[in-house]
Amino acid sequence: MTTVDLDKLTKVYPNGTTAVSELDLEVAEGEFMVLVGPSGCGKTTALRMIAGLEEITAGELRMGGRVVNDLSPKERDIAMIFQNYALYPHMSVASNIGFALKLRKVPKDKRAQDVGAAARILGLIEQLERKPGQLSGGQRQRVAMGRAIVREPAVFLMDEPLSNLDAKLRVQMRAEIAHVQRRLGVATFYVTHDQVEAMTMGDRVAVMRSGRLQQCDRPQALYDTPINVFVASFIGSPAMNLYEATLAPDGRSVKLGSQTIALPAAVDQRLPGLRRYRDRTLLLGIRPEHLTDATLDPEDRQGAYLTGDIRLVEALGSELMVHFRLDAARVHTDDTAAAAEDDDLGSEADAEVSSYADGVARVDSRSKLTQGASGRFGVMADRLHFFDASTHEAIRD
After folding, report:
1. What does R_g of the chain's alpha carbons equal in angstroms?
2. Cα separation of 245 and 283, whole Å?
3. How many beta carbons lie within 10 A of that of residue 244, not counting itself?
4. Are residues 71 and 45 both part of a single domain?
5. Residue 84 pLDDT class (50, 70, 90 cuts)
């Protein structure tokens, strides 16, 4: 069992580009740590420094308390799983899994025993004699995992291992990878740009942007208490709705555009730092799942409502995604743009008049809200998020 400590780990390329800047992380024995962020944020570079594939410019990398900056990848006792599997096409599944053991000159009987044990864990017993070309994408990914497992490494490193799989198989495989990792109890670094993967797999998630660590915490803590606008925009699907708003002088309501949302006393108690922003502009965050169709809402929201023009309704079976527009100031910053960089939906709103703000609500499938109509949404006001308009940091204490 091995702990891994990244102490101000930094990577600067010869042309002066800083890919990773003073990254601090402590990963415990058996912990599953996910590095997540948009393309180019430095997460893969960090993984390659841990692996020994990239030279460390500054800082220390410790494994089991020992500084390994100058050790070769082989000496670091790590196993890396890539997104392209890197299997030998002419070898059988058994030979691929056991290849590293063969290089170590492990006796044939012991090699077969270890390969069989890994294959049983991964459900590959019936595929051992097949070639990679005869396997599905998910099976090939399992073979790549099996090759890492039999080495019994001190640390697992996984670089977007599911990116080549279809959506259904990715859901299945992320559950299997998490299960196998917990069974083996090996410290693991997992790189992805998919925040859903990050939230469902990691014991902790490290959110990166432009080479710097933004926040590292348990998945639920990242969702509930994002430290800044970037993390708030990146974590959660669909992304958090963000609006420019003004807190009332008495702190009991917040105004965005021509509308006012009443705030319960619980907000002031939970966020005492909000008192400094009375009668000031701030950024208001509302997660789509914290908006309801007011006509179906069994609770009296006591003045916490929004009205918007419905632009699109997406039926997803168990719920509806209702896209709407408000006459409020739209928030479009470098933080929100960076967080949305990998969003396949694009950003039609960027071309629109800035005096309007688009939003999305995740509502019950029984809703009768329709495109082109006006919709009234209940706001779970005790779940609102507030950010400083200048620093984009979360308002808390």
Report:
1. 24
2. 6
3. 16
4. yes
5. confident
Which of the pair, 1 or 325, is modelled with greater confidence? 325
CA dihedral angle for residue 132, residue 134, residue 139, residue 140, rounded to 10 degrees: 20
396 domain residue, yes or no: no
CB neighbourhood size of 6 (10 A): 24
Of 157, 143, 149, the closest CA to residue 87 belongs to 143
CA distances from 108 to 98, 99, 129 (A): 10, 11, 16
Determine the distance from the C-alpha atom of residue 135 to the mean position of all C-alpha atoms in its chain, rounded to a whole number. 29
Choosing from 179, 213, 230, the residue where a domain stops is 230
pLDDT tens column, 143-188: 988 998 898 899 999 999 888 888 888 888 888 888 889 988 999 9
Tell me how far apart the alpha carbons of residues 159 and 136 are, in angstroms, rounded to a whole number.
20
Tell me which residue has tokens 């997104």: 83
Cα 227-321-218 angle, rounded to 5 deg: 30
Residues 6+ apart with CB under 8 A from 344: none
SS3 321: strand
- In this predicted structure, which of 199-213, 284-298, 299-313, 348-362 has the lowest mean pLDDT? 348-362
- pLDDT tens string 103-152: 889 999 999 999 999 999 888 999 999 999 999 888 898 898 899 889 88
Find where tokens 């990146």 sit.
234
Domain encompassing residue 344:
232-388
Q: Is residue 395 part of a domain?
A: no
State both tokens at 24: 């601090």
Closest CA to 285 of 388, 390, 387, 385: 385
User: Which tokens hold the place of 364?
Assistant: 């019950």
What is the average per-residue pLDDT within 358-382?
Answer: 96
43 and 104 Cβ atoms separated by less than 8 Å: no
Q: Where are the alpha helices (DSSP H) in the chain?
A: 43-51, 93-103, 108-122, 137-149, 167-184, 195-201, 219-224, 229-234, 265-270, 334-339
pLDDT at 352: 36
Give the SS3 label for residue 73: coil
Rounded to whole angstroms, how far apart are CA atoms 74 and 71? 8
State the total domains in the chain.
Answer: 2
Q: What is the pLDDT of residue 342?
A: 54
**What is the amino acid identity at position 358?**
D
Tell me which residue of 38, 394, 395, 37 sits closest to 228, measured CA to CA.
Answer: 394
